[in-house]
Amino acid sequence: MKKSIIIILLLCGVFAKAQNKKWTLKECVIYALENNISVKQSELDLELADIDILTAKGSFLPSLNAGGGVSESTGLSFNPVTNNAQTTTVLSASGRINVGYTLFDGLRNFRTVQRADISKLASQYRLDKMKDDISLFVANNYLQVILNKANLAVLKSQNEVTEEQIERTQELVDAGSLPRGDLLEIQAINASEQQSIINAENSIQISLISLAQLLLIKDYENFDIVDEGYDIVDSEIVNKNVSEIISKAKESRSEIKIAEQNVALAKKDVQIAKGANYPSLTASFGYDTRYANTNSFIQQVDPDNPVITQQIGVVEGTGQSVVGEFPNSTNVLVGADPFFDQLAQNDGISYGLSLNIPIFNGFQTRGSVQRTKVNLERSKFQLEQAELDLESTVYQAYVDAKGAFKSYEAATLAVESQQLAYDYAKERYDVGLTNAFDFSQSKLRFDNSNIELNRAKYDYIFKLKVLELYFGIPATELKF
Question: Which pTM does this prediction carry?
Answer without folding.
Answer: 0.75
